[in-house]
Design brief:
With 216 residues, the chain is α/β, with parallel strands linked by helices. It has a domain of 138 residues: P-loop containing nucleotide triphosphate hydrolases (Rossmann fold, 3-Layer(aba) Sandwich). 48% of the residues lie in helices and 15% in strands. It is built from 9 helices and 7 strands. Helix 1 packs across helix 9 and helix 6 packs across helix 7.
């Protein structure tokens, strides 16, 4: 059983590693994006509140996210542990998470920070290409068989607006301003474990597992 938070800059590989961690340790992978989509689909009160802001093109405020996170962490499948991905992103959210965990009598065991140099992050994200069918490629690391075409459905590949080099750099500025301070916050609490995110997926996963296993 392990309760953990996964942090790292955009492009650090959090989503990929989160899925592997979830499978190995049999704990739910809790992504704020997934939770929001689920609440929207089910038409919950919190989902409807979130939709009002999203329809206006605004960020979902903390007070709504906090309610959604608390509901999700109170579900039975988190009794054996959980992995939070995408929350907290700010210092106030980290403090709110502490309050939530106190209310539901849970506590964090470890915070894993996947550390990757900025130049590598820019190269990773700016080279990413997507297909409408959901398939993902990379011009350097995972190119399609035919340039610009999806291997699965032959659809045209595209670059997300937030994956251009300029947009990626803007996202990194926001990350260092808003999320990076959490590194010191969790380090002070003795919860932080930093892993090198520049190796292969399997190498990074082994390093993450070693960090988790040391506290179990």
């Amino acid at each position: 059983m392990v309760n953990l938070v996964l942090v790292g800059a955009p492009g650090a590989g959090k989503g990929t590693q989160a899925m592997k961690i979830s499978q190995k340790y049999a704990i739910p992978h809790i992504s704020t994006g997934d939770i929001l989509r689920d609440n929207l689909e089910r038409g919950t009160q919190l989902g409807l509140q979130a939709k009002e802001f999203m329809d206006r093109g605004e960020l979902v405020p903390d007070i709504v996210l906090i309610g959604i996170i608390k509901d999700r962490l109170s579900e039975p499948d988190t009794a054996t542990g959980f992995l939070l991905d995408g929350y907290p992103r700010t210092f106030p959210q980290a403090e709110a998470l502490d309050d939530i965990l106190g209310q539901i009598t849970k506590e964090l065991d470890v915070v894993i920070d996947i550390e990757v140099p900025d130049e590598v992050l820019v190269k990773r994200l700016a080279g990413r290409r997507m297909c409408r069918c959901g398939a993902s490629y990379h011009v350097l690391f995972n190119p399609p068989e035919v340039d610009g075409k999806c291997d699965h459905c032959d659809g045209e590949l595209y670059q997300r607006d937030d994956d251009t080099e300029e947009a990626v750099k803007t996202r990194l500025v926001a990350y260092y301003a808003q999320t990076h301070p959490l590194i010191d916050y969790y380090s002070t609490k003795g919860l932080l474990r930093t892993v090198n995110g520049t190796g292969s997926i399997d190498d990074i996963f082994r390093e993450i597992c070693a960090a988790i296993d040391r506290i179990l």
